[in-house]
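thread from #wetlab-drylab

HS: before we spend reagent money on co-crystallization trials with adenosine monophosphate, can we at least see a predicted complex? here's what I'd submit
DV: go for it
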Amino acid sequence: MLFSELGLLPALETAVAGEGYVEPTPIQARAIPHVLAGRDLLGLAQTGTGKTAAFALPILQRLANQPPAGRQRPIRCLVLTPTRELAAQIDESFSTYGKHLPLRSFVIFGGVGMDAQKQALRSGMDILVATPGRLLDLAGQGLVELKALEVFVLDEADRMLDMGFIHDVRKVIRLLPRHRQTLFFSATMPPEAQELADQLLKNPQTVAVVPSATTAERIDQEVYFVEKADKRALLVDVLRDAGMRRVLVFSRTKHGANRIAEHLVKAGIGAEAIHGNKSQNARERALAGFKAGKTRVLVATDIAARGIDIDDVTHVVNFDIPEVPETYVHRIGRTARAGAAGMALSFCEADERLDWRNIEKLTRQEIPIVEGHPYESRVPFTSSSSSSPRALASPRPQPQSQPQSHTHGRRDLPSTGGGAKRRRRRGGRGRGAPASA
Ligand code: AMP
């Protein structure tokens, strides 16, 4: 499909072409017609799918087609998003896509002075992008008038809830007129998000985009079978490889993320954790340190890592194996951005072997197993735990000291530090810096 088939205004088509976009992404192709038709929308998509343009383009078109009466510029569209970074990115997208239209957008978020924001609210704008706290602050001062609102976008709803913004979101919703179009975006739909969606949306159209499993094909992947208690030590061990320059470690829980980061710091490795329990300032500091190359390892929960645009992540480490296989694809997609090569390492404990098997099924790949590492699992592979070396692929020569059974015996080898003793089933570059990074 081409953008020209979506029926967008020439001014928008020109702007999109100026960005080098040729085809709409799946979420754009499917969501834009509904939004143009004025329908409510439930969009299941995460950052990176092109979801911003999926709502920004049709919103700009609707606003441009019906200029407001009078000279005042009432707020006609409000986009609520959880973080400053996202708010700034969304505002920038509205400016880029709307640059040939006589519409004005503005962004407000906390942590910066209020004067410029107050001034902008007094002068008027068509589109306001905001984080909830600062919006409520300014609304409390009588500066945010939303009576003329036509479209409300709730972006990253699951993350908003994870960050504890539900009360603020509900307060913002109470300021909105009943008659409006609502677009609700979330990558996942936990019950709390579903409840909010039910409350906000009227006869919504649902558009869901799951990440393409083929993304995984560009990324060099390895799995380490390891017992739970040894995972942190294994992480320290693999991080002896200096080629792992910018490493994103995924932890299933917030508490786990803290513990991993603390362990790494004790081992002398620069690491920070980011998750929903951290303040926005703490997350931004951690992120800035990571982006600037000051912090080598960022440990994140799935939701906290989403929406963070970090180029040049050399390695992703799945410290826990995700239960939902698509999450694996989301995670490893954080490396190999912008066409660069990337590498993903996964630490799989005995209880996670079935989840691992499901990931291999989804990605239709047999992911090479790292053998001979100092923390190999001693838990036997049973047929129900599936992902045994034997179950995976053609026979391979066993290292001499390797037990000839499904059991991976713990090798009392000193750490090799650079993976020299590691053996993998199939060829690859090893864990070092990706070839094109
Ligand atoms: P988003 O999911 O909205 O954060 O978008 C992710 C990235 O994809 C942004 O850098 C956009 O500029 C880019 N993008 C959005 N739509 C398209 C498209 N149709 N073709 C190519 N790139 C796009």
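DV: The first helix runs from residue 10 to 18.
HS: ok that's useful, forwarding to the group
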